[in-house]
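Late entry, evening session. Most of the bench is empty. Finally got around to the prediction I had been postponing all week. Sequence below, unchanged from the version circulated by S.P.
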Amino acid sequence: MIHSEGRPKIAIIDSNTLAAMGLKHILQNVMPIMSVDTYGSFTELEANHPDQYFHYFVSMAIVLGNKNFFLEHKRKTIVLTLNLDTMSQLSDFNCLCINVPEQELVRSLLVLEQHAHSHGKNLPPMPAVLSQRILSDREIEVMSLIVQGYINKEIAEKLNIGLATVITHRKNIMEKLGMKSVSALTIYAVMHGYVDINKI
């Protein structure tokens, strides 16, 4: 475990503990260099040096209840909404609809991250272990097609290889990267520039 000193920090402020924990897990995948703290209320955030955070991911109710603070920090604030209609009410802020399938949420986070930090240029470098090149060229091709939503049979046809070979590559990719889901793979592929966000 890398010590979190010196790593940029994100705060999630949401009274829904399950939602906050789920988002924390996804954020740590999308931005492995970040350290993520969760707070159940605005009072808790205030008691813990709110200025130390790079971003606040905040439930809509908490933003509305403490609008002045979040308007002052609107570049840092990302409002968690449950549907797209409420996003228009909070046009001052970046919003993230969390009531969507995981793949879609991951895509929104990646878009937000790339938009805010133009391909990570303003972010500190990735830990060496995450930036090493682990996959072969063929595995990168297979991974790129997996995250674009192609099924094994289509990947085999596109790359002119056997179905069993695709399955083997797929297994090896997951093992080498220590990942269990396509969402995690998508995050890895986009963050390392293997797949354009617009293709997923």
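Two things to note before I forget:
The mean pLDDT is 83.
The longest strand covers residues 53-59.
Will write this up properly tomorrow.
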